Amino acid sequence: MVDRSDEFLKIRTVGKGTAGRADLVTKKSDNSNWVLKIVEGEFQPESETKKLNQASWEEVSILAKIQHQNIIRYEDSWSQGTTLMILMEYADGGTLEEQWKAACKAKQPFSEEKVIKWTVQLLLAVEYCHGVHSTPPHCTVNAHY
After folding, report:
1. Contact call for residues 74 and 88 (beta carbons, < 8 A)
2. Can you say whether the dihedral through the CA atoms of 51, 138, 37, 57 is positive or negative?
3. Phi, psi for 53 (deg, rounded to 5)
4. Residues 24-65: pLDDT tens digits?
């Protein structure tokens, strides 16, 4: 167990989910911004705990393997007490949803070039992810024609 809370300064919470939250943090040593995903549970890698523990450590293992310019980069992870901490790159441009809302509020539609660029980036990221795993993660696609 490692307590690394003194290394970071919390700026704000940027997301919440059923298993935890994501905080925007500044690394004190170099003032760089990161997102710290905080997942509550029993997260000691050597312990015999529930499936959630195993699935969370598997997620960390997959994140550590992903190296692509269009995918948020994994930096580090550790357990702190019964909490799993995952340090990820911070996308300072915000989310697509935030950009969409801002464009709607300003009544400024996205340019065709921007939509094409984002679509290409998304497709390249998906193509990369399918190449990282020998078996792609389970998903169901329901196409309606």
Report:
1. yes
2. positive
3. -60, -50
4. 999 999 999 999 999 887 655 555 455 557 778 888 888 998
Query: Is 75 in contact with 89 (CB distance < 8 Å)?
Result: yes
The CATH label, of 3.30.200.20, 3.40.50.2300, 3.40.50.300, 3.55.50.30, for the domain at 5-89 is 3.30.200.20
Q: Which residue has the tokens 């003032």?
A: 31
- Cα of first residue to Cα of last residue in the chain, in angstroms, is 52
Q: What is the pLDDT of residues 72-110, one digit of tens each?
A: 999 999 988 888 899 999 988 888 888 999 999 999 999
Q: 3-state SS string over 107-126? A: CCCCCHHHHHHHHHHHHHHH
91 Rama sector, left if φ>0, alpha if ψ -120 to 50, beta otherwise:
beta
Enumerate the domain spans of the chain. Answer: 5-89, 93-145
> Which residue is associated with the tokens 């029993």?
42
* Radius of gyration for the alpha carbons in the chain, expressed in angstroms and rounded: 18
pTM: 0.76
